[in-house]
Amino acid sequence: MDNIITISFDDIDSQYGGCTTHFTGIFLYEIKNKIKLIDYPLLVRLNPGIPWKTRGNASTALRFIYNNPDEIFEIAKNLVEEYINPRPPSPNKKPGIVVTQGKVWEEDNFKNFYKKALSDVVLLDEAINILEKNKALYYGGKGLIGATAAQGSLGLYEPYTFELIFYRIPDNWDKERCVRDDMVLKIEKSLPGCSINNYDYIKERTSVKPNGPDPILSGFRGSCEKLLWKYEYSLCETPHFALLFRSNQHTSYGLFNDLFPYPYRNVEIEGYVLNIKVLPKGHVIVSINTKYGIFDISLYKDTGPLNEAAKLLAKGDYIKVQGSVRPYFYNSNPTISAYSMEVIYVNQIKKTLSPRCPLCGNRMKSLGHNKGYRCEKCGFITKQTDKIEIKMNRKLLPGIYMPETGELMHLQKEKYTILPILTNFNYIDLNQIFKIYSNQ
Ligand code: ATP
């Protein structure tokens, strides 16, 4: 394909509203008659442990055919300024726009930058180096990190999912959202194997509605693009428009690595359980001995089955944990917030007891080291010194433990979902992915 352009965005939002995905929809509407999309709009989640994210650390990208990248870049800059003008971003945020030509998602520097931004902290200078080398057109500040990462994301043969996002009419942004929980549940049940993380079975409500004054009404996730549109029936508020994104959400692809657990990294780490502490609010802290030293793993109450499994751990069990490393604190073990856990080995716990009385069956009392036992009930005395060893029943089974669906974090894969991969790019029919409901 000739004249491939990728434009990517990040940080087109502020604490007063707005959202990078919403802006992407508006931008796509603006250029739709000039271009031919060769991929779905991309919604790319990056390292969830980054402390300076606003919500879910998302950036976006559009891949299309057009012969004038400079023109696209100018339209994007003007539209970004227009979009953020009424809602200036906080001082530590600055939008990022990147325009490249060619199949950059196949280039190692973009691919590696994306992978690092998923699991680690990256610097703005690293992004700018890559953009300079590539002779990319770019504009903005810190948002360039996310925008550069999005360029290298979601190439061929990488697993992906979809998110169908419905946006609100601007007059409604500060009002209560109207999405019917019962309908979401009904539709979810009619789409087995497709719907991902749309209903929280513990809280018995949808997980598709964000909070706050942003333009998203609801976002429905799944592995099947056409069936996701069924969720339209759960809306009891007229949307402004809807846009279907292809995404790295719920793929866990490249998320956890066996890296040294520095703060804000996402790691996979394994070790023997040393100690388990259940805190008053139900959170569990499990200390494990790893090849990097002792780490505390926190498994929050909200994670449901994961937290319940952690309560059943015992000293000597061997576990592998996937999670995000928290900032280190003086005088305490470094801590990792767990997203999932694999119990690899369940330790057999033995308990030693004094023998039972052969006459009355009561458990006897020791008369002291090597002096035998006496039954306190019937007075029987024996010189026997051997204790009885019994194996304790363990309720925990080896296996993978995760939060309940609806409580998964953005990038986390559901245990049993089979994910699609793309083997080639095709032109995208805009009518299949973009729908306008109101002209307001
Ligand atoms: P929204 O969904 O509205 O876009 P958000 O939660 O995605 O909000 P951003 O506004 O995108 O938050 O802020 C995340 C910031 O962190 C961006 O400036 C992005 O460039 C930067 N960033 C993303 N990943 C990394 C990373 N791995 N290391 C360093 N900075 C990162």
How would you describe what is shown here?
Helix 4 crosses helix 5 (143-151). Strands 1, 2, 3, 4, 5, 6, 7, 10, 11 and 23 form a ten-stranded mixed beta sheet that branches. A five-stranded mixed β-barrel has the order 12-13-14-16-15. With 440 residues, it is an alpha+beta fold. It contains eight helices and 23 strands. Helix content is 18%, strand content 28%. It has two domains: 1-255 and 411-440, 2-Layer Sandwich (Alpha-Beta Plaits); 266-348 and 393-407, OB fold (Dihydrolipoamide Acetyltransferase, E2P) (Beta Barrel), CATH 2.40.50.1010. It has helices at 20-31, 69-84, 108-119, 124-134, 143-151, 181-190, 305-311, 430-433; strands at residues 4-10, 36-37, 42-45, 58-65, 96-101, 137-140, 161-168, 199-200, 205-206, 216-222, 239-247, 266-278, 284-290, 293-299, 318-325, 335-345, 350-353, 365-366, 373-374, 381-382, 388-391, 399-401, 434-436. Bound molecules: adenosine-5'-triphosphate (ATP). Residues 10-11, 13, 19-20, 46-47, 50, 52-58, 93, 96, 117, 121-122, 142-143, 145-146 line the site of adenosine-5'-triphosphate.
Per-chain topology:
Layout: E1 4-10, H1 20-31, E2 36-37, E3 42-45, E4 58-65, H2 69-84, E5 96-101, H3 108-119, H4 124-134, E6 137-140, H5 143-151, E7 161-168, H6 181-190, E8 199-200, E9 205-206, E10 216-222, E11 239-247, E12 266-278, E13 284-290, E14 293-299, H7 305-311, E15 318-325, E16 335-345, E17 350-353, E18 365-366, E19 373-374, E20 381-382, E21 388-391, E22 399-401, H8 430-433, E23 434-436
Parallel strand pairs: 3-11, 14-16
Antiparallel strand pairs: 1-4, 1-5, 2-4, 3-4, 5-6, 7-10, 7-11, 8-9, 11-23, 12-13, 12-15, 13-14, 15-16, 16-22, 17-21, 18-19, 19-20
Bound molecules: adenosine-5'-triphosphate.
